[in-house]
Specification:
Its EC number is 2.7.1.17. Keywords: Carbohydrate metabolism, Kinase, Transferase, Xylose metabolism. The chain is of the alpha/beta class and 546 residues long. The chain has a domain of 113 residues. A seven-stranded mixed β-sheet has the order 15-16-14-13-19-20-21, sandwiched between helices. Strands 1, 2, 3, 6, 11 and 12 form a six-stranded mixed β-sheet that branches. Strands 4-5 form a two-stranded antiparallel sheet. Strand 1 and strand 2 form a beta hairpin. The radius of gyration is 23 Å and the shape is globular. It starts with 15 loop residues before the first helix and ends with a helix.
Length: 546
Protein backbone atom coordinates (compact mmCIF):
# COMPACT_ATOMS: atom_id res chain seq x y z
CA UNK A 1 0.00 0.00 0.00
CA UNK A 2 1.44 3.36 -1.00
CA UNK A 3 0.05 6.77 -0.25
CA UNK A 4 1.17 10.37 0.11
CA UNK A 5 1.08 12.20 3.41
CA UNK A 6 -1.87 14.46 4.13
CA UNK A 7 -1.27 17.83 5.74
CA UNK A 8 -3.76 19.26 8.23
CA UNK A 9 -5.17 22.73 7.56
CA UNK A 10 -4.61 25.51 10.06
CA UNK A 11 -7.99 25.98 11.67
CA UNK A 12 -7.05 28.98 13.82
CA UNK A 13 -5.31 31.42 11.49
CA UNK A 14 -5.13 35.03 12.78
CA UNK A 15 -7.81 36.55 10.55
CA UNK A 16 -10.45 33.89 11.20
CA UNK A 17 -12.09 35.80 14.04
CA UNK A 18 -12.32 38.98 11.97
CA UNK A 19 -13.79 37.06 9.04
CA UNK A 20 -16.42 35.50 11.29
CA UNK A 21 -17.31 38.81 12.93
CA UNK A 22 -17.75 40.32 9.47
CA UNK A 23 -20.25 37.62 8.54
CA UNK A 24 -18.11 36.34 5.67
CA UNK A 25 -18.25 32.59 6.38
CA UNK A 26 -20.26 29.98 4.50
CA UNK A 27 -22.36 27.32 6.23
CA UNK A 28 -23.12 23.85 4.92
CA UNK A 29 -25.64 21.74 6.82
CA UNK A 30 -26.32 18.12 5.91
CA UNK A 31 -28.95 15.78 7.32
CA UNK A 32 -27.32 12.38 6.94
CA UNK A 33 -28.71 9.00 7.88
CA UNK A 34 -27.09 8.88 11.34
CA UNK A 35 -25.77 12.40 11.93
CA UNK A 36 -26.74 15.96 11.17
CA UNK A 37 -23.49 17.81 10.45
CA UNK A 38 -22.50 21.42 9.97
CA UNK A 39 -19.33 22.83 8.41
CA UNK A 40 -18.40 26.49 8.39
CA UNK A 41 -15.78 27.56 5.84
CA UNK A 42 -14.05 30.61 4.40
CA UNK A 43 -13.84 31.49 0.70
CA UNK A 44 -11.04 28.95 0.16
CA UNK A 45 -12.90 26.09 1.83
CA UNK A 46 -10.87 26.17 5.05
CA UNK A 47 -12.95 24.70 7.87
CA UNK A 48 -13.54 27.30 10.58
CA UNK A 49 -15.91 25.27 12.72
CA UNK A 50 -18.05 22.15 12.80
CA UNK A 51 -21.10 20.86 14.61
CA UNK A 52 -22.97 17.58 14.76
CA UNK A 53 -26.00 15.86 16.20
CA UNK A 54 -26.70 12.12 16.22
CA UNK A 55 -30.09 10.86 15.15
CA UNK A 56 -31.61 7.62 13.91
CA UNK A 57 -34.38 6.51 11.62
CA UNK A 58 -37.21 4.42 13.01
CA UNK A 59 -39.33 1.66 11.56
CA UNK A 60 -42.97 2.60 12.07
CA UNK A 61 -46.11 1.45 10.25
CA UNK A 62 -44.00 -0.68 7.88
CA UNK A 63 -41.87 2.28 6.79
CA UNK A 64 -38.42 3.62 7.58
CA UNK A 65 -38.94 7.23 8.62
CA UNK A 66 -37.56 10.26 10.44
CA UNK A 67 -39.78 12.62 12.39
CA UNK A 68 -39.66 16.19 11.09
CA UNK A 69 -39.80 17.35 14.71
CA UNK A 70 -36.62 15.35 15.29
CA UNK A 71 -35.14 16.94 12.18
CA UNK A 72 -35.70 20.45 13.52
CA UNK A 73 -34.50 19.70 17.04
CA UNK A 74 -31.47 17.99 15.50
CA UNK A 75 -30.74 20.93 13.20
CA UNK A 76 -30.94 23.33 16.13
CA UNK A 77 -28.71 21.10 18.26
CA UNK A 78 -26.18 20.79 15.44
CA UNK A 79 -26.12 24.55 14.85
CA UNK A 80 -25.72 25.19 18.59
CA UNK A 81 -22.77 22.78 18.60
CA UNK A 82 -21.25 24.73 15.71
CA UNK A 83 -21.70 28.04 17.56
CA UNK A 84 -19.98 26.53 20.61
CA UNK A 85 -17.11 25.23 18.46
CA UNK A 86 -16.63 28.64 16.82
CA UNK A 87 -16.64 30.35 20.22
CA UNK A 88 -14.03 27.93 21.60
CA UNK A 89 -11.79 28.07 18.53
CA UNK A 90 -11.95 31.75 17.68
CA UNK A 91 -13.43 33.57 20.66
CA UNK A 92 -16.31 35.11 18.72
CA UNK A 93 -20.08 34.67 18.61
CA UNK A 94 -21.54 33.56 15.28
CA UNK A 95 -24.26 36.06 14.36
CA UNK A 96 -24.12 36.46 10.59
CA UNK A 97 -23.37 34.28 7.56
CA UNK A 98 -22.41 35.14 4.00
CA UNK A 99 -24.19 32.10 2.60
CA UNK A 100 -25.91 28.91 3.61
CA UNK A 101 -26.69 25.60 1.93
CA UNK A 102 -28.83 22.64 2.99
CA UNK A 103 -28.20 19.06 1.96
CA UNK A 104 -29.82 15.79 3.00
CA UNK A 105 -30.43 12.19 2.13
CA UNK A 106 -31.84 11.95 -1.38
CA UNK A 107 -35.03 10.33 -2.63
CA UNK A 108 -37.95 9.18 -0.52
CA UNK A 109 -41.36 10.74 -0.14
CA UNK A 110 -42.09 13.98 1.67
CA UNK A 111 -45.67 14.93 0.84
CA UNK A 112 -47.16 18.27 1.87
CA UNK A 113 -50.51 19.92 1.35
CA UNK A 114 -51.05 23.37 -0.19
CA UNK A 115 -50.29 25.01 3.17
CA UNK A 116 -46.99 23.16 3.53
CA UNK A 117 -48.29 20.79 6.20
CA UNK A 118 -47.03 17.20 6.19
CA UNK A 119 -49.62 14.69 4.95
CA UNK A 120 -47.95 11.37 5.86
CA UNK A 121 -44.74 10.46 7.72
CA UNK A 122 -41.57 10.98 5.67
CA UNK A 123 -40.78 7.78 3.76
CA UNK A 124 -37.03 7.45 3.30
CA UNK A 125 -34.84 6.01 0.55
CA UNK A 126 -34.58 2.84 2.62
CA UNK A 127 -38.11 1.63 1.87
CA UNK A 128 -38.26 -0.98 -0.88
CA UNK A 129 -42.00 -1.64 -1.18
CA UNK A 130 -42.29 0.46 -4.35
CA UNK A 131 -41.30 -2.34 -6.73
CA UNK A 132 -44.54 -2.40 -8.76
CA UNK A 133 -44.59 1.37 -9.15
CA UNK A 134 -40.91 1.52 -10.14
CA UNK A 135 -41.40 -1.27 -12.66
CA UNK A 136 -44.37 0.51 -14.27
CA UNK A 137 -42.42 3.76 -14.46
CA UNK A 138 -39.34 2.07 -15.90
CA UNK A 139 -41.36 0.52 -18.72
CA UNK A 140 -43.33 3.74 -19.33
CA UNK A 141 -40.20 5.91 -19.45
CA UNK A 142 -37.89 3.32 -21.07
CA UNK A 143 -35.47 4.28 -18.32
CA UNK A 144 -34.42 2.62 -15.08
CA UNK A 145 -36.43 4.20 -12.27
CA UNK A 146 -35.17 2.99 -8.87
CA UNK A 147 -37.39 1.93 -6.01
CA UNK A 148 -36.21 4.77 -3.76
CA UNK A 149 -36.88 7.66 -6.18
CA UNK A 150 -39.60 10.08 -5.11
CA UNK A 151 -41.68 9.44 -8.22
CA UNK A 152 -41.72 5.71 -7.40
CA UNK A 153 -43.01 6.49 -3.92
CA UNK A 154 -45.58 8.86 -5.37
CA UNK A 155 -46.93 6.31 -7.85
CA UNK A 156 -46.94 3.66 -5.11
CA UNK A 157 -49.22 5.92 -3.05
CA UNK A 158 -51.43 6.58 -6.08
CA UNK A 159 -51.74 2.89 -6.97
CA UNK A 160 -52.59 2.14 -3.34
CA UNK A 161 -55.42 4.72 -3.35
CA UNK A 162 -53.94 6.38 -0.29
CA UNK A 163 -56.29 8.91 1.25
CA UNK A 164 -53.89 11.83 1.18
CA UNK A 165 -53.04 11.70 -2.56
CA UNK A 166 -55.80 14.04 -3.84
CA UNK A 167 -54.74 16.64 -1.24
CA UNK A 168 -51.13 16.80 -2.41
CA UNK A 169 -49.87 20.33 -2.84
CA UNK A 170 -46.09 19.81 -2.78
CA UNK A 171 -43.73 16.89 -3.24
CA UNK A 172 -40.16 17.53 -2.19
CA UNK A 173 -37.07 16.05 -0.57
CA UNK A 174 -35.80 16.47 2.98
CA UNK A 175 -33.27 19.08 1.82
CA UNK A 176 -35.91 20.89 -0.20
CA UNK A 177 -38.28 20.94 2.78
CA UNK A 178 -35.72 22.41 5.17
CA UNK A 179 -34.61 24.94 2.54
CA UNK A 180 -38.20 26.09 1.99
CA UNK A 181 -38.71 26.69 5.71
CA UNK A 182 -35.48 28.70 5.93
CA UNK A 183 -35.96 30.77 2.77
CA UNK A 184 -39.62 30.55 1.68
CA UNK A 185 -38.51 29.14 -1.72
CA UNK A 186 -39.69 25.74 -3.04
CA UNK A 187 -36.66 24.77 -5.12
CA UNK A 188 -34.23 21.87 -5.56
CA UNK A 189 -30.69 21.68 -6.78
CA UNK A 190 -30.59 19.61 -9.95
CA UNK A 191 -28.55 16.83 -8.31
CA UNK A 192 -31.20 16.34 -5.63
CA UNK A 193 -33.96 16.78 -8.19
CA UNK A 194 -32.47 13.97 -10.31
CA UNK A 195 -33.48 11.54 -7.56
CA UNK A 196 -37.06 12.82 -7.64
CA UNK A 197 -37.83 12.60 -11.38
CA UNK A 198 -35.66 12.22 -14.51
CA UNK A 199 -33.83 15.34 -15.67
CA UNK A 200 -33.98 16.69 -19.23
CA UNK A 201 -30.97 16.43 -21.55
CA UNK A 202 -30.43 20.17 -21.00
CA UNK A 203 -29.55 19.37 -17.37
CA UNK A 204 -31.59 22.17 -15.83
CA UNK A 205 -35.22 20.97 -15.59
CA UNK A 206 -37.39 17.89 -15.22
CA UNK A 207 -37.80 16.00 -18.50
CA UNK A 208 -40.96 17.45 -20.14
CA UNK A 209 -41.65 14.41 -22.33
CA UNK A 210 -41.53 12.06 -19.35
CA UNK A 211 -43.78 14.39 -17.36
CA UNK A 212 -46.33 13.97 -20.15
CA UNK A 213 -45.93 10.19 -20.08
CA UNK A 214 -46.53 10.21 -16.32
CA UNK A 215 -49.66 12.28 -16.83
CA UNK A 216 -50.90 9.67 -19.33
CA UNK A 217 -50.86 6.79 -16.85
CA UNK A 218 -54.36 5.44 -16.18
CA UNK A 219 -54.01 5.82 -12.42
CA UNK A 220 -53.03 9.49 -12.73
CA UNK A 221 -55.50 10.96 -15.21
CA UNK A 222 -58.30 11.76 -12.72
CA UNK A 223 -56.15 13.36 -10.02
CA UNK A 224 -56.87 17.06 -9.22
CA UNK A 225 -53.22 18.10 -9.69
CA UNK A 226 -50.49 17.63 -12.26
CA UNK A 227 -46.94 16.60 -11.43
CA UNK A 228 -45.34 19.89 -12.60
CA UNK A 229 -47.69 21.75 -10.24
CA UNK A 230 -46.48 19.95 -7.12
CA UNK A 231 -42.75 19.60 -7.90
CA UNK A 232 -40.22 22.28 -6.85
CA UNK A 233 -38.36 24.46 -9.33
CA UNK A 234 -35.05 22.97 -10.49
CA UNK A 235 -31.87 25.07 -10.13
CA UNK A 236 -28.24 24.38 -11.03
CA UNK A 237 -25.24 25.17 -8.82
CA UNK A 238 -24.70 28.89 -8.34
CA UNK A 239 -28.23 29.99 -9.20
CA UNK A 240 -30.28 32.23 -6.91
CA UNK A 241 -32.15 30.07 -4.37
CA UNK A 242 -33.26 32.88 -2.09
CA UNK A 243 -31.93 34.20 1.22
CA UNK A 244 -32.23 33.22 4.86
CA UNK A 245 -35.37 34.91 6.19
CA UNK A 246 -35.89 36.19 9.72
CA UNK A 247 -38.21 33.24 10.36
CA UNK A 248 -35.63 30.87 8.94
CA UNK A 249 -32.88 32.34 11.11
CA UNK A 250 -35.09 31.83 14.18
CA UNK A 251 -35.72 28.22 13.18
CA UNK A 252 -32.00 27.57 12.83
CA UNK A 253 -30.98 29.50 15.94
CA UNK A 254 -33.82 29.92 18.50
CA UNK A 255 -31.55 32.12 20.66
CA UNK A 256 -32.11 34.94 18.18
CA UNK A 257 -28.41 35.66 17.71
CA UNK A 258 -28.31 34.67 14.03
CA UNK A 259 -29.28 37.46 11.65
CA UNK A 260 -31.17 36.91 8.36
CA UNK A 261 -29.88 37.75 4.89
CA UNK A 262 -27.42 34.97 4.09
CA UNK A 263 -27.38 33.98 0.41
CA UNK A 264 -28.89 30.50 -0.05
CA UNK A 265 -27.50 27.87 -2.38
CA UNK A 266 -29.85 25.46 -4.19
CA UNK A 267 -30.51 22.58 -1.74
CA UNK A 268 -28.68 19.43 -2.76
CA UNK A 269 -28.68 15.71 -2.10
CA UNK A 270 -25.89 13.84 -0.38
CA UNK A 271 -24.72 12.44 -3.71
CA UNK A 272 -24.10 15.91 -5.12
CA UNK A 273 -22.32 17.19 -2.02
CA UNK A 274 -20.12 14.09 -2.09
CA UNK A 275 -19.07 14.87 -5.65
CA UNK A 276 -18.24 18.45 -4.70
CA UNK A 277 -16.38 17.43 -1.53
CA UNK A 278 -14.12 15.19 -3.60
CA UNK A 279 -13.81 17.38 -6.73
CA UNK A 280 -15.38 14.56 -8.75
CA UNK A 281 -17.39 16.72 -11.15
CA UNK A 282 -15.53 16.08 -14.43
CA UNK A 283 -15.68 13.10 -16.85
CA UNK A 284 -13.46 10.08 -15.97
CA UNK A 285 -13.70 10.96 -12.28
CA UNK A 286 -15.97 9.50 -9.67
CA UNK A 287 -16.48 9.34 -5.96
CA UNK A 288 -17.65 6.93 -3.33
CA UNK A 289 -19.61 8.22 -0.36
CA UNK A 290 -19.71 5.69 2.46
CA UNK A 291 -21.94 5.86 5.51
CA UNK A 292 -25.03 3.90 6.52
CA UNK A 293 -25.55 3.48 2.79
CA UNK A 294 -22.95 3.76 0.05
CA UNK A 295 -23.02 5.10 -3.45
CA UNK A 296 -20.57 5.61 -6.25
CA UNK A 297 -20.97 8.48 -8.68
CA UNK A 298 -19.17 8.37 -12.02
CA UNK A 299 -19.32 11.39 -14.36
CA UNK A 300 -19.96 10.06 -17.86
CA UNK A 301 -18.13 10.86 -21.07
CA UNK A 302 -20.90 9.40 -23.23
CA UNK A 303 -24.33 7.79 -22.83
CA UNK A 304 -24.65 4.21 -21.61
CA UNK A 305 -25.74 1.44 -23.98
CA UNK A 306 -29.27 1.53 -22.59
CA UNK A 307 -31.31 1.25 -19.38
CA UNK A 308 -29.71 -0.96 -16.72
CA UNK A 309 -31.37 -1.95 -13.47
CA UNK A 310 -28.10 -1.64 -11.53
CA UNK A 311 -27.35 1.90 -12.70
CA UNK A 312 -29.23 5.10 -11.93
CA UNK A 313 -28.80 8.14 -14.14
CA UNK A 314 -28.55 11.32 -12.09
CA UNK A 315 -26.56 14.56 -12.42
CA UNK A 316 -23.82 16.64 -10.87
CA UNK A 317 -24.97 19.85 -9.12
CA UNK A 318 -24.25 21.56 -12.47
CA UNK A 319 -26.53 19.19 -14.39
CA UNK A 320 -23.92 16.95 -16.09
CA UNK A 321 -24.89 13.25 -16.51
CA UNK A 322 -23.73 10.83 -13.84
CA UNK A 323 -24.02 7.06 -13.44
CA UNK A 324 -24.88 6.20 -9.87
CA UNK A 325 -24.43 2.85 -8.15
CA UNK A 326 -26.39 2.96 -4.91
CA UNK A 327 -26.49 0.44 -2.10
CA UNK A 328 -28.80 0.53 0.89
CA UNK A 329 -26.19 -0.88 3.27
CA UNK A 330 -22.59 -0.02 4.06
CA UNK A 331 -21.11 0.65 7.51
CA UNK A 332 -24.14 0.01 9.74
CA UNK A 333 -23.41 -3.64 10.52
CA UNK A 334 -19.67 -2.97 10.74
CA UNK A 335 -20.35 -0.27 13.36
CA UNK A 336 -22.53 -2.71 15.30
CA UNK A 337 -19.74 -5.31 15.40
CA UNK A 338 -17.20 -2.75 16.54
CA UNK A 339 -19.61 -1.63 19.23
CA UNK A 340 -19.66 -5.22 20.46
CA UNK A 341 -15.85 -5.31 20.65
CA UNK A 342 -15.88 -1.96 22.43
CA UNK A 343 -18.27 -3.31 25.04
CA UNK A 344 -16.04 -6.38 25.50
CA UNK A 345 -13.10 -4.06 26.22
CA UNK A 346 -15.21 -2.23 28.82
CA UNK A 347 -16.09 -5.52 30.56
CA UNK A 348 -12.39 -6.34 30.73
CA UNK A 349 -11.81 -3.03 32.47
CA UNK A 350 -9.87 -1.52 29.58
CA UNK A 351 -12.28 0.76 27.69
CA UNK A 352 -10.99 2.29 24.46
CA UNK A 353 -12.16 5.32 22.54
CA UNK A 354 -13.75 5.07 19.10
CA UNK A 355 -10.64 6.22 17.19
CA UNK A 356 -8.41 3.62 18.88
CA UNK A 357 -11.05 0.91 18.55
CA UNK A 358 -11.54 1.47 14.83
CA UNK A 359 -7.85 1.91 14.00
CA UNK A 360 -6.89 -1.24 15.93
CA UNK A 361 -9.52 -3.46 14.37
CA UNK A 362 -9.17 -1.97 10.90
CA UNK A 363 -5.45 -2.60 11.23
CA UNK A 364 -6.19 -6.22 12.06
CA UNK A 365 -8.31 -6.45 8.92
CA UNK A 366 -5.41 -5.16 6.84
CA UNK A 367 -3.38 -8.14 8.09
CA UNK A 368 -6.01 -10.70 7.06
CA UNK A 369 -5.72 -13.04 4.10
CA UNK A 370 -6.38 -11.36 0.76
CA UNK A 371 -9.50 -13.52 0.30
CA UNK A 372 -10.53 -13.08 3.96
CA UNK A 373 -9.89 -16.77 4.53
CA UNK A 374 -13.25 -17.77 3.10
CA UNK A 375 -15.23 -15.76 5.67
CA UNK A 376 -18.31 -14.09 4.16
CA UNK A 377 -20.08 -11.09 5.63
CA UNK A 378 -23.47 -9.74 4.51
CA UNK A 379 -24.18 -6.34 6.06
CA UNK A 380 -27.83 -6.26 4.98
CA UNK A 381 -29.69 -4.44 7.73
CA UNK A 382 -32.24 -3.61 5.05
CA UNK A 383 -32.97 -5.14 1.66
CA UNK A 384 -30.44 -4.65 -1.14
CA UNK A 385 -31.63 -4.05 -4.69
CA UNK A 386 -28.14 -4.36 -6.21
CA UNK A 387 -28.05 -8.05 -5.29
CA UNK A 388 -31.79 -8.80 -5.50
CA UNK A 389 -32.19 -9.29 -1.74
CA UNK A 390 -35.71 -8.11 -0.83
CA UNK A 391 -35.39 -8.26 2.96
CA UNK A 392 -32.06 -7.92 4.71
CA UNK A 393 -30.71 -9.98 7.60
CA UNK A 394 -27.13 -9.29 8.73
CA UNK A 395 -25.28 -12.55 8.24
CA UNK A 396 -21.82 -14.00 8.88
CA UNK A 397 -21.21 -17.33 7.17
CA UNK A 398 -18.23 -19.63 6.45
CA UNK A 399 -17.43 -23.15 5.45
CA UNK A 400 -15.95 -25.47 8.07
CA UNK A 401 -12.42 -25.16 6.67
CA UNK A 402 -12.47 -21.36 6.46
CA UNK A 403 -9.60 -19.64 8.29
CA UNK A 404 -11.66 -17.92 10.96
CA UNK A 405 -9.33 -15.44 12.67
CA UNK A 406 -9.92 -11.93 13.96
CA UNK A 407 -7.89 -10.60 11.02
CA UNK A 408 -9.99 -12.47 8.45
CA UNK A 409 -13.21 -11.59 10.26
CA UNK A 410 -12.37 -7.90 10.08
CA UNK A 411 -11.20 -8.09 6.46
CA UNK A 412 -14.48 -9.77 5.56
CA UNK A 413 -16.38 -7.03 7.39
CA UNK A 414 -14.54 -4.38 5.36
CA UNK A 415 -15.12 -6.30 2.12
CA UNK A 416 -18.78 -6.72 3.09
CA UNK A 417 -19.25 -2.99 3.66
CA UNK A 418 -18.51 -2.49 -0.05
CA UNK A 419 -19.80 -5.87 -1.28
CA UNK A 420 -23.02 -4.78 -2.97
CA UNK A 421 -21.24 -1.70 -4.34
CA UNK A 422 -18.57 -3.89 -5.94
CA UNK A 423 -21.29 -5.97 -7.61
CA UNK A 424 -22.93 -2.86 -9.06
CA UNK A 425 -19.66 -1.30 -10.18
CA UNK A 426 -18.84 -4.39 -12.25
CA UNK A 427 -21.87 -3.59 -14.42
CA UNK A 428 -20.57 -0.07 -15.00
CA UNK A 429 -16.82 -0.65 -15.40
CA UNK A 430 -16.79 -4.07 -17.06
CA UNK A 431 -20.10 -4.42 -18.90
CA UNK A 432 -20.46 -0.78 -19.97
CA UNK A 433 -16.73 -0.16 -20.38
CA UNK A 434 -16.79 3.15 -18.49
CA UNK A 435 -13.27 4.45 -17.85
CA UNK A 436 -12.09 5.91 -14.55
CA UNK A 437 -8.77 7.63 -13.92
CA UNK A 438 -9.35 7.97 -10.19
CA UNK A 439 -12.07 7.39 -7.65
CA UNK A 440 -12.29 9.90 -4.82
CA UNK A 441 -13.68 8.79 -1.48
CA UNK A 442 -15.19 10.34 1.60
CA UNK A 443 -17.04 9.23 4.70
CA UNK A 444 -16.30 8.10 8.24
CA UNK A 445 -15.13 4.62 7.23
CA UNK A 446 -12.05 6.27 5.68
CA UNK A 447 -10.95 8.06 8.87
CA UNK A 448 -8.49 5.25 9.67
CA UNK A 449 -5.93 6.21 7.07
CA UNK A 450 -5.27 3.94 4.15
CA UNK A 451 -7.11 0.76 5.14
CA UNK A 452 -10.68 1.07 3.84
CA UNK A 453 -9.15 3.14 1.03
CA UNK A 454 -6.96 0.20 -0.04
CA UNK A 455 -9.89 -2.22 0.26
CA UNK A 456 -11.94 -0.03 -2.07
CA UNK A 457 -9.09 0.44 -4.58
CA UNK A 458 -8.66 -3.32 -4.88
CA UNK A 459 -12.42 -3.90 -5.07
CA UNK A 460 -12.82 -1.42 -7.94
CA UNK A 461 -9.40 -2.00 -9.57
CA UNK A 462 -9.02 1.79 -9.56
CA UNK A 463 -6.75 4.16 -7.59
CA UNK A 464 -8.62 5.78 -4.71
CA UNK A 465 -7.81 9.31 -3.51
CA UNK A 466 -8.73 10.89 -0.21
CA UNK A 467 -8.66 14.63 0.45
CA UNK A 468 -7.66 16.32 3.68
CA UNK A 469 -11.24 17.44 4.35
CA UNK A 470 -12.88 14.18 3.28
CA UNK A 471 -13.80 13.37 6.85
CA UNK A 472 -16.10 16.40 6.89
CA UNK A 473 -18.01 14.81 4.02
CA UNK A 474 -21.21 16.26 2.64
CA UNK A 475 -21.54 19.16 5.06
CA UNK A 476 -18.22 20.50 3.78
CA UNK A 477 -19.29 19.88 0.17
CA UNK A 478 -22.51 21.80 0.81
CA UNK A 479 -20.54 24.67 2.35
CA UNK A 480 -18.46 24.82 -0.84
CA UNK A 481 -21.65 25.03 -2.90
CA UNK A 482 -22.83 27.86 -0.65
CA UNK A 483 -19.51 29.66 -1.16
CA UNK A 484 -19.82 29.17 -4.93
CA UNK A 485 -23.35 30.60 -4.89
CA UNK A 486 -22.15 33.63 -2.92
CA UNK A 487 -19.35 34.19 -5.43
CA UNK A 488 -21.80 34.12 -8.36
CA UNK A 489 -24.02 36.62 -6.54
CA UNK A 490 -21.03 38.94 -6.13
CA UNK A 491 -19.96 38.52 -9.74
CA UNK A 492 -16.59 36.97 -8.86
CA UNK A 493 -17.26 33.31 -9.63
CA UNK A 494 -15.10 31.14 -11.83
CA UNK A 495 -16.70 30.27 -15.15
CA UNK A 496 -17.99 26.93 -13.82
CA UNK A 497 -18.30 24.93 -10.63
CA UNK A 498 -15.46 22.75 -11.88
CA UNK A 499 -13.17 25.77 -12.30
CA UNK A 500 -14.20 27.19 -8.93
CA UNK A 501 -13.29 23.94 -7.18
CA UNK A 502 -10.02 23.50 -9.08
CA UNK A 503 -8.80 27.08 -8.72
CA UNK A 504 -10.18 28.24 -5.38
CA UNK A 505 -10.66 25.13 -3.24
CA UNK A 506 -8.47 22.21 -4.24
CA UNK A 507 -5.42 23.98 -5.67
CA UNK A 508 -3.76 23.91 -2.24
CA UNK A 509 -5.26 20.64 -1.01
CA UNK A 510 -3.11 17.55 -0.78
CA UNK A 511 -4.47 14.13 -1.67
CA UNK A 512 -3.63 10.77 -0.21
CA UNK A 513 -3.85 8.31 -3.10
CA UNK A 514 -3.53 4.53 -2.87
CA UNK A 515 -2.77 2.43 -5.92
CA UNK A 516 -4.25 -0.99 -6.57
CA UNK A 517 -2.46 -4.04 -5.23
CA UNK A 518 -2.27 -7.16 -7.44
CA UNK A 519 -2.59 -9.63 -4.56
CA UNK A 520 -5.39 -7.56 -3.02
CA UNK A 521 -7.34 -7.44 -6.29
CA UNK A 522 -6.99 -11.21 -6.79
CA UNK A 523 -8.02 -11.91 -3.21
CA UNK A 524 -11.02 -9.63 -3.42
CA UNK A 525 -12.11 -11.19 -6.72
CA UNK A 526 -12.03 -14.62 -5.04
CA UNK A 527 -13.96 -13.29 -2.05
CA UNK A 528 -16.54 -11.59 -4.30
CA UNK A 529 -17.14 -14.83 -6.21
CA UNK A 530 -17.96 -16.54 -2.91
CA UNK A 531 -20.09 -13.57 -1.89
CA UNK A 532 -22.15 -13.89 -5.06
CA UNK A 533 -22.63 -17.61 -4.50
CA UNK A 534 -23.69 -17.09 -0.89
CA UNK A 535 -26.35 -14.52 -1.76
CA UNK A 536 -28.91 -17.31 -1.94
CA UNK A 537 -28.26 -17.99 1.76
CA UNK A 538 -28.87 -14.31 2.52
CA UNK A 539 -32.15 -14.37 0.57
CA UNK A 540 -33.30 -17.49 2.45
CA UNK A 541 -32.43 -15.82 5.76
CA UNK A 542 -34.90 -13.07 4.93
CA UNK A 543 -37.59 -15.63 4.15
CA UNK A 544 -37.02 -17.83 7.21
CA UNK A 545 -36.22 -15.19 9.85
CA UNK A 546 -39.37 -13.20 9.28
Amino acid sequence: MTHDAVSSPDLSRPDAAALLEAGSAHLGLELGSTRIKAALVDDSGLVLGTGSHAWENEFADDSWTYSLDDAWSGIQSCYADLVRDVRERHGVELTQLASIGISAMMHGYLALDHDGEQLVPFRTWRNTYTADAASLLSSTFDLNIPLRWSVSHLLHAILGDEEHVPRLGQLTTLAGYVHSKLTGRSVLGVGDASGVFPIAVSGDAFDPELLERFAGLDAVTDLPWSLPEILPEVLVAGQDAGTLTSGGAALLDPTGALQPGAVAAPPEGDAGTGMVATQAVDPRTGNVSAGTSAFAMVVLEKPLSGPREEIDLVTTPSGDPVAMIHTNNCAGDLDAWLGLFGRFAELLGHPVGPEELYSTLFGAGAEGDADAGGVLSYNYISGEHQTAVPSGRPLLVREQEARFTLENFMRSQLYGAFGALAVGMEALLKDEGVHLDVMYAHGGIFRTKGIAQQILADALATPVALGESAGEGGAWGMALLAAYTASTRHGSAATSLSSFLAEQIFASQELSTVQTDEAGMAGHASWLAGYRTGLEVERRAGEVLA
